[in-house]
Specification:
mainly alpha; 65% helix
C-alpha cells in the first residue's frame, strides 16, 4: 500500500473517530450551557416583572394620600365595602362562572425568551442517554484502533 493511501486512510478513520469523540464530549456540555442561558433569561424576565410591580405599588402607596379615586378603589378591592347608592354588576362567563375582579395594580410582563431548539439541542438531548453515549464511545475507539492497525506503522510484509 502506498504511503499516500495509508495517510489518507488513517486521516479518514481517525478523523471520524475524533469527530464522534468530540460530539460525545462537547454536545452535552453545549446543551447544558444553552439551557442555563435560557433559565437565566427567564429569571431576568421574572426579576424585571417584580421590579415593575414594586414600582407600581410604590406609586399606589404614594397616591393613597392624595387621590380619592385610588383610595375608593383600594377599599373596594380589599373588602366588601360598597356605597349604599351603587350596585355591583357581575358578568358571567360562557360556562357560568364569574370573572374575578381585576388587579388594582397592573404591570406589563417582560417578554420571555423562546425555548432553545435546533439540531444541536436535539443531538445533545439524545446524548444524555448513558447507553447511547457508551455505544458511540466504543464506536470511536474501534475506528481509532482500526485506523492505527490498518494504516498506522510501517508494513511488516516482505516486498
Amino acid at each position: 500500500m502506498s504511503p499516500l493511501v495509508r495517510r489518507i486512510g488513517f486521516i479518514a478513520l481517525a478523523g471520524m473517530a475524533t469527530t464522534i469523540l468530540a460530539g460525545v464530549v462537547l454536545l452535552p456540555i453545549y446543551g447544558q450551557f444553552v439551557k442555563g442561558c435560557y433559565e437565566r433569561d427567564c429569571l431576568q424576565a421574572g426579576n424585571s416583572d417584580a421590579e415593575n410591580l414594586i414600582t407600581a405599588q410604590d406609586r399606589l402607596i404614594d397616591a393613597l394620600d392624595t387621590d380619592e379615586v385610588v383610595t375608593v378603589r383600594l377599599a373596594r378591592s380589599q373588602s366588601d365595602w360598597l356605597p349604599y347608592d351603587e350596585a355591583v354588576v357581575v358578568e358571567m362567563t360562557a360556562d357560568g362562572r364569574t370573572e374575578p375582579p381585576g388587579e388594582l395594580v397592573n404591570i406589563d410582563r417582560a417578554a420571555r425568551p423562546a425555548k432553545p431548539q435546533g439540531k444541536l439541542m436535539q443531538l445533545a438531548a439524545k446524548l444524555e442517554s448513558p447507553n447511547r453515549k457508551r455505544g458511540l464511545l466504543l464506536l470511536a475507539a474501534a475506528a481509532m484502533i482500526t485506523a492505527m492497525l490498518m494504516f498506522g506503522g510501517k508494513s511488516t510484509r516482505a516486498a
